Amino acid sequence: MLELTVMKTTACPSFFFDPAVNRREFLRAGALSLFGLGLPQMVQAQNNGRPKRAKACILLFMWGGPAQQDTWDMKPDAPADYRGEFRPIATTVPGLQICEHLPRLAQRAHQLSLIRSMTHNNVDHTKATHFLLTGKPPPVGAMSDDWPSYGAILSKLGRGHGPLPPFVSMMPVVPNGSPRFVEQSHGQGAGWLGPVYNPMRIDADASLPDYRVADFALSAELTPLRAGGRQQLLRTLDQQVRRLEAQAQLHAMQTHYERAFSLLAAPEVTRAFDLSQESPSLRERYGMNIHGQSVLQARRLVEAGVPIVTVFWPNDGITNVSVYWDTHNRNFIDLRERLCPVTDRAFSALLDDLDQRGMLDETLVVWTGEMGRTPRVGQSVVGGAGAGRDGRDHWGQVFTSVLAGGGVRGGAIHGSSDRYAAEPATNATQPADLAATIYQCLGVDPSMEIRDRLDRPVTLCDGQVITPLLR
Q1: What whole-number distance in Å separates Cα of residue 101 and Cα of residue 288?
Q2: Which of 4, 432, 52 is nearest to 201 (CA)?
Q3: Cα 232 from chain centroid?
Q4: Is the pTM of this model over 0.85?
Q5: How many helices (H) and strands (E) does the chain have?
Q6: Element (H, E) at 99
Q7: Structural domain range at position 23
Q8: Which CATH number covers residue 359?
């Protein structure tokens, strides 16, 4: 598959649009109809008589699988080898306790909705992500067979305005950050909907002093007139090549070039990616680290009109520690020192920042991983990767996802796990139910009919909206 990198430099990581498409796919994706619907039907399908609850979504994806019983679903009365080392602390919601290493979020619990009964049957990181990013079970085939992610659906629905793309994925690359398991995760892109709807992926480290997303500024040598000349040259070359040979992917490449020039020429794009416009104190509130500054970048993007931004937890390149939230060893050390403090700071700062800007009611924030961790410390499971004496293995049977902002009731708890945090005790919640709720909050009817690549009618989402969590 061809990957087009736009204006990539060695000095700073660039963004790139995911693989180009053949002409037939492009023409099909760019047709005036949506899944076989005309414009009036499209609008009706989106709204279905319901007011839009949120204009944008920021999805904070804690890749690796956070331990539910060591974060949001403490089990202080369980045996020691189940409850672990951490203590629960009180929150602003009477009766609700969370981990002692999430103190800022404890003070903002009245803004959060916790789903403590998430469940599915897959313990493979790269496959389980498909459940949480699409609401559908993972496919057997390649990533091109994936169900379209939330962002791809919103892109197809025509969400967003201005030159910025409708779907952005923050996936920073850092030195020594291998292995890059997150890049192999299913459900992160457009799947069978076609690569035209894949996200703009940002791989730059927003915490660096010289952070730039490619070169969103015309150099002194490249005037707007010369840029326009290069754009016209590309069109001319394209026409000549098309006469000479039917090169299947050229048209899609031209689309990406056109998009790149639009981004390059738009001052609002430059501003959206210029974190130096934020005060040093605000940047510190998010945390001067890769994740914290990525979350701040996500806020700036939705403020500039991007409908959905996914922020993947980065592999920070530190050796001899857990990779992402995948705490097979050093579970308590890494949660205490590296994982919980960073997410506590960034997530709480995002809530405050959105609220102070009057954006929280119109921005849905979702915090989730693709699974949880084993109930017992040191427990290994079939299909997992094992666990050391101080670690927890993969566990899909129960985990916690958190919602806040647009359309969501704060201070709510949906479902519960058993006394060992091993299975749902009440209101078992499938990823499809979370997906339906996300779509509902964004004003998209989860039961709308769409057409797959074989033009067969399929339902966008099979889950049930979790109505007790909605305002």
Answers
A1: 18
A2: 4
A3: 36
A4: no
A5: 14, 18
A6: strand 97-99
A7: 4-469
A8: 3.40.720.10
